[in-house]
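Lab notebook page, bench 4
Experiment: in silico fold of construct C2
Operator: M.H.
Input chain length: 498 residues
Purpose: comparison with the prior construct
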Amino acid sequence: MASFLCQVQTIQRGLGRSAVAAAAYRSGQALTDDRLAMEFDFSNKDGIEHAEIMAPDDAPQAYRDRAALWNAVEAAERRKDAVPAQEVLLALPYELDFEQRRDLVRAFVQDHLVAKGMIADVAMHRPGKEGDQRNFHAHIMVTTRRVDRAGFAGKNRDWNHSSFIPQLRASWSEIQNRHLRHHLGPDAPQVSHLSLAARGVDRAPTVHLGPAATALERKDIASERGELNRDVRARNDKARDLRRDYQATADRIAKTAPEIEVAVPKLVVEAEQVLGKMVDQRTAWAAERDALSAPKIPSAGRVERELTAEAATAKARARAHLQQTEERVTKTRSRRLELVAWVRNPARMIWAKHAELNAIGRARKAYRRAEMGLKVRQDWVRSPKGQAFVAARRQPDLEAAADVVRQRRTLERKIKRMDNRIGLAGRTISDLRLAHELGQRELRVPNQSPDETRFFRDIGRPAREALQRFPTPVQEQALERLRRGQGRSIGRAIIPGR
C-alpha cells in the first residue's frame, strides 16, 4: 500500500552546509558555490528521475537557473548561522507511474509552496539499486526569504511558525489521496498524516533508519536503529496474533450463543449502562495520560559542563588568586618605596623583591596547574570514552522519557478506539429508540456478547433491520417526535411543574 512521509529539515550554514552543494547533490549536477569558491560535481549521480525549478510569477527570470538561484540565496544571507534553505522530503506512491507522480509533486509544490511565495527546486529520485524498489521519493528545496522582481527580501516568519509543518503534512496527505483515487479508482490505497496513536491503530511505530543505519543493514551489519525496529516488529506481530486469537474466540462465542427476544426499552437501558462504563473508562485513561510526565533530559552539553565544572571552578579560583597576588604585590611595592628605611637598606629591598617574585610565581604555577587540569578534563570529555560516559549518564533519563512516550501513545490509541466504540454505542442507542418509537417492541439478539463492541453490533444489527422496514418519511416523522419528547423532558427539568 502507499506510504506517507513528509519531513521538513533546514539547511544550516552553521553546520557547514551549503545550499548550492545540496542543490547539486539532489539534482545530480555540477554547481559552483561563489561564496565558498568551491565546485560540487554530482553529475555522475544515478537515480535522478526528474528535476526542475518552480517559482512565483514575479520572481526574476534568472532564478530559473539552478546555479544563479542558490548563489543568490547564499549571497542574501549575512549571518554565519543563517538558514538559506529548507528541504521537504516526500515519499511518492509507487503505485503511480512517472508522469502521474510528477503531476502529483507539481500540484503539491504549486499549491502549497510556490503559492506562498517560495521558490522550489524539485528533484524526484528513483529507488536505489540495493534498497526497497518501492522507494520513489522527492527532495524539494525551498527558499526562506520573500522574493519579488528585485530579488530576495526579508524572511517570511510564517514559514517557520509551529503550525506550518502540520498543515503541510495534512495537505500532502490530502492531495496524495486525491491523486491516488483519481488514477486508481475509489478503492485506491490511502495514506494519513496522523500518527498511529491518533488513528487508534494498535501498533507501535518504528523509527526512520537514515542513510548510515541503512548502509550498515545492507551489509548485514546490525545497527542500533535496525535492532530497535526488529524488536518493535516482533512486539507488533505478537500483539496481532493475540488479537486474532481473541477475535477467533469471540466469533466462536457469538456463533454458539442462543438468541432470545428482549424488550427494546430493556436493551436501551442496558446499552446506556454499558455506554456509561465506556465513558468512565475513557475518562480514566485520559486522566492517566494527562498525569504522565517525562523527566527533563539533560543535554549532552549540560552533562559535559557538569563533568568539567569542578576543574573550571578551580581554574577561576586560581586566576582570581593570581590577580589578587599581583595587585597586593603592586600595592606593597608602592608603599615600600615610600619608606626611607627600606630604600637605604639594599638587603631588605632584595629580600622583599624575592618574596614578591616567589608569591607571584606560586600563584602563576597554581593557575597553570588548574588550567591544565581543566584542559585535561575537557579533552577527556570530548574523547570517545568521555562521550560514552556522557551518553551513559543521559541514558536512564532517555529511557524513562521513552517509556513515558510509549505509555502515552498506548493510552492515546486506547482512547481513540474507545471514542470509536462510544460513537457506535450512541448510534445504536438512537436506532433502538427510533425503532421503539416506530412500534418495535422486542428484538431478537444473542443472550451474551464477549465485549462491548460485539454487544452493540449484536443489538444494533436487528435494530437497523427493523428500521429498514419503514419508509424514510415515516422514520423522519418518528425522529421528530423523539426530538420533541426530549425537548419537553428538558423543559420539565429546567422549569419545575411544567
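Observations: Residues 487-498 have pLDDT under 50 and may be disordered. The chain is about 60% helix and 10% strand.
Next step: discuss at group meeting.
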